[in-house]
Amino acid sequence: MLSILLWRTSCVAALQQPIPRARLGQSELVVSEVCLGTMTWGKQNTIDEGVAQLNQAVDEFGLNFIDTAEMYPVPTEAATQGETDRTIAKWLEGRNREEVVLATKVCGASSRIDWVRSDGRTPRVTPADIEESVDASLERLGTDYVDLLQIHWPDRYVPLFGSDSYDPSNEREAVPFDEQLRGLAKVIEAGKVRYVGVSNETPYGVCKFVEHAEREGLPRICSIQNSYSLIVRSDFENGLTEVCSPRHCDVSLLAYSPLAGGILSGKYASDDPPQNARLNLFPGFMDRYLNSRAREAVDEYAALANQYGLSPAQLALKWCYARPHVSSTIIGATSLGQLRENVEAYHVDLPDSALSAINQVYKRFRDPSKV
């Protein structure tokens, strides 16, 4: 109990100082090392609750980095698509736009969200799709530019969102890398976008984007937004860490889902988690958790957190915040209290002994959510 009280006292003092900031790749974007994710606003959260979170994140905690997407909130559906952007627009009224780094995303290829485009076509990453996506996003956001535009997932086939190995039989025709970059160049030249990045990308994709940019004088990606957490590590660490390093492609990692969809918070420890818990909202995600070794890994990390007087969420978030190849970690919350806990975790002291213990657990549970 004493250790927890001392930790909370240190957090209060530390929060008097703003969260440190990092430069993204070779861009001029300097962002807080904690980024406010927004994908619940308009579905799990009301617009007013989203505005309250933004006020707290920016005014109290000093965050300057906000991440949204054209398809938010999630689970995405035609009836609510764009509500997240409208939440941000309401908050931006009367604010100094230049004090905020605003990131959004254009959808990758998917036949399941054909209502995203005005003519009902399947979204792709063509120049026409990019331009339509950006124009619609700017209108919803109530601003005339975004600081960072990311390709939400690749136009080509890649294993996504928990899929395991690459299956060549699923390969399909895709928009060429240089054509995607030319589309991105067009919105940059129009003053609608400052910099570009990718998301849910692979080492091959990062290398090709950088190769074409450097060879053909096209926009260079400055960031990659990929899932990264205590139970989703190897996908990034076994290839992308090298590729994205400043010595090579110099692409900054924006780590999303640092709590693995909430699993690492401990909220799913019981056999009857809350019905409004995030994994219950995504078909198949809860099954992936329950039918894999993820639950065992989470239990071990929770026990380790307890040894150091931390909550499971604090341990998982601090580990992610402290990784040297993570430029900014995207956190989401459905309440102001949860948001506070997530930001305060930045100031937790995680000793070397805890890091060593974490790595011992990881050696036994690599990719535990993959069946």
Shape: globular
Mean pLDDT equals: 91
**Strand order, biggest sheet?**
3-4-5-6-7-8-9-10
Can you tell me the CATH superfamily? Answer: NADP-dependent oxidoreductase domain
Main traits of this protein?
about 375 residues; alpha/beta; TIM Barrel; two-stranded antiparallel sheet; 14 helices; about 15% strand
Quick summary:
This is NADP-dependent oxidoreductase domain-containing protein. With about 375 residues, the protein is an alpha/beta fold. The protein has 14 helices and ten strands.
Task: Characterise the protein shown here.
InterPro entries: AKR, AKR_Detox_Biosynth, NAD(P)_OxRdtase_dom_sf, NADP_OxRdtase_dom. Residues 34-362 form the NADP-dependent oxidoreductase domain. Pfam families: Aldo_ket_red. It comes from Chrysophaeum taylorii. This protein is α/β, with parallel strands linked by helices. It has a single domain (2-364), classed as TIM Barrel, CATH 3.20.20. The protein contains 14 helices and 10 strands. The strands form 2 sheets. An 8-stranded parallel barrel has the order 3-4-5-6-7-8-9-10, surrounded by 4 helices. The longest helix has 15 residues, at 127-141.
